[in-house]
Specification:
Nucleotidyltransferase, domain 5, Hexokinase, domain 1, 6-stranded mixed beta sheet, 5-stranded mixed beta sheet, 18 strands
Amino acid sequence: MPSPFDSPRLIADIGATQVRFALEVAPRQFDAVAALRITDHLDFPATVAAYLKQVGSPAVSHAAMAVANPVDGDLIRMTNAPWQFSIEAARTQLGLRTLVVVNDFTALAMAVPGLAAEEVRQVGGGVTREGSVLGVLGAGSGLGVSGVIPAEHGWVALGTEGGHTSFSPRNAREIAILEFAWTEFSHVSFERLLSGRGIELMYRAIAKQTGIVVEPRAAQEITQRALAASDACAVATLETFCEILGTAAANLAVTLGARAGIYIGGAIVPRLGSFFDQSAFRARFEDKGRFSDYLREVPTYVINAEQATFRGVSAVLESQLKNLQSSGDSGLLAQIQRGLEGFSPAERRVADYILSRPREFLNQPIAQIAVLANVSQPTVIRFCRTLGAAGLSDLKLRLAAAVTGTIPVSHAQITDDDSTAELGSKVLSNTASAILRLRDQINQDSMDRAIERLAAARRTEIFAGGNDLAVATDAQAKLLRVGVACGYLARESEQLIAAGLLSTDSVALIIDNDGRSSELREVAEIARERGATVIALTLGQTTLARRADIAIVIDHVEDVQTQLPMVSRILHLLIVDILAVGLAQRRGGLAELRG
């Protein structure tokens, strides 16, 4: 019997229409399994909160989620659901110490090495070669592709988007399907065919090729009719699906050198049973010309295990927690937790801040940490030394691996004692850190809408003041290069007059680093009264951001009221570059920018 955890771990699998939850109370032991519909809840944290309330609000410290999306950085944008969320913000909102988010097929791949013999079904010949790479793919709402590589202390999962490789037909029927698909898509990937929607597309294509008139049918109905042998077109569709999957599986095997085997999961194949086993899947898999002998030795398996994705998510979370424990840095968090009773009230506030928001702590300068913890800056330094650190930077380095698994590029406070080398390193590191945060946090929908409105506008007026005028000058030069009629006026009185001359086919592009300018807020009000679209480049949670039609939020750690804008100015310039390149793409004028 596996030993229970100190507290249950929250495990979730986020699909296209629902989220499946479970509480892992011991290794591979999942209780309180439930599914909640995505459309019934406002966002991801709200869905998690609803599930925890449903199962009695247990105390949960660690959680891991699989999501049918690429996972690259902190911001998760769901492609098949109306959700967008920050991993760190969700972790903080839910009061979790750990929140790990992984691609769903990365999770499935991590489950495969732990599957028992009875949890998979071999299709065809081949023998597993121990110590080799294994590949994983599966069709459902899309085509997931992954793999795992054996390492010294376990397995390393590959995060791939291999389902989007270009489809390659092998016979006349598949050529006809490709030509049919080209009438709907400019690029036909394997996922376009090896998915639920792909089955529907192939059904229509085969019907057209054979001259049969069929009604539009959902993938589930087509599959049922094929398994019942009640629809010749459906049978041909499912047979073709299995053959094309054989091609995709063979491609994956030779690409990864997956001598340990190819494992097939997803929502479709495990339900096909003997139809799949008797299909031409394996014959197509081995039909690889000069590499046919190679592939005959590679086994292929269908995954029959229940809760395989849960088990993979659990394995990823367990690996993460072990890394934190072995790094010694998690010991620092434990040290802080154990020392709470012995800290002074002020030190306790610093400790509570670090324990509740460790990632945020890593990226804050000492002045901001003091403000957020409601203590003095000397108290922050004293707290660091209480824990045996030489200072704030030393404590951050010790904490970094516990929070992120790596030592991050973070914001470092510049002091009068810094050497030229230290100064240069901090300035560059601070800039790199801010750019990476902006990359993860930028709202793509806002950027798309801004580019669309700038492209459609008859004229764009740029409004800025003070240190932001340098960004306004750059914006005017860039936008003019891509054919946007625009200008800006530096004087406040002239800006108010210009705003009053705008119309419904105009754009007011307002650049305000901290969102505090009352003059620019007045410009925004006048522009909106004139019916113009207001696009604001500014901090989030400001009056200007709320009044704008499109707010491009650029959060940063600089106090531009007391400091000369440096990092924040670069972030604004980069946003201008993105807007200009986006406009150039629309107008076919990238060469103008390159010139």
